[in-house]
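tmp note - Transcriptional regulator, contains XRE-family HTH domain
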Amino acid sequence: MQIGERIAFYRQRRGYTQSQLAGLVGRSTDWLSKIERGERQMRRVDLLTELARALRVTLGDLMGQPVLMEEDEERDDIPAIRDALMAPGRLSRVLFAPPSDGRQPDLARAEQLVEFLWADYQRGRIGEVVERLPRLIRAAQQLEDAASDLDDGGRRRAWAMSARTHHLAATTLSKVGEADLSWIAAERAMKAADEADDALVLASAARAATHALLAVGRYDDALSLGETAAHWLGPQVAAGDPNALSLLGMLHLRTAVAAARRQDRAVATELLGHAEQSATRLGEDGNYWQTGFGPTNVELHRLSAGLDLGDMTWVVRRGENVDVAHLPAERQVTHLIDLARALSYLARDDDAVDLLLEAERTAPALVRHSAVVREAVKTMHRRAPVSTGARSSRLLALAQRCRAVR
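out:
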């Protein structure tokens, strides 16, 4: 189903008339009727969030559930990630104290592996990350259990490794539409960061939590968390630490997106300005703490905010002139998806498909498992004239790979 059809489904389940639901979100019955019939696109995510709240469902329920990843070399390890995150032993260390065999987990090896997987994530190799995350999460849990037996430096490193692991899990799960699991992983990242007693680790984990909050439509909470975490970086930022500048800049960028999604243009513009100041001080498109932060990333988030604010023509005109070739593949693909969505809203479907196919060649899983891509492709496929053969063309093939059509 398209978004409009899912809205109609849940509205009927709740026993609301179109007039009643439209009134709950301050819109006209005609507006809701056109949304449900697919005659009008849902461009503003804040309105979708309001509808989800009125219908008492999640944002993911209206956006569409994630699809399985088994087409990627017949691998689907999301269930294994779920099992690792929700293992009963994580509920209580008293009830489920791990047996001690005298052997300590290899902390250095675990630290090395999480950095390798972060590199894979930035290269767009989501399938490889998903496949290896369960093992890495279990290693992080073992290190948490053993942390109290380590010296102070080792204890903090163990908790920092766990925070980095769960941050990676939260970000990856968010990318493939697993919003609820992403939130669990982000919460674990924040708790581990508290124990690590390191402002950089805490700020990085907070960045993961803002991703999870954005995925479930909690924009005010994302703003509050990002702004609070930013204050913890004060001393390092004042000293010009590039790690702190990058993390601070990314927190401002994530909160700017949160502001844009709740249609607060003034706050979004202010936060983008703060991020630009950090990028100017950094002076380069760096990748400290796997942020990919710098002047170009600020520009990409400015375009992303413009997309959420409805500035489609501006996003297309400005976005086509941004050079992203030097950025991590994940950032390149995210930009291409944003630009393609703006083009699809302007009914420039051929151009949008060109960009999505380019993005798919770079990182297939990031495109095929994106809920927003799936909706854009579904919309373009439905309005493609059958007489031109468009539905049997590359658009249909892309729609099938994205599970947008059967």
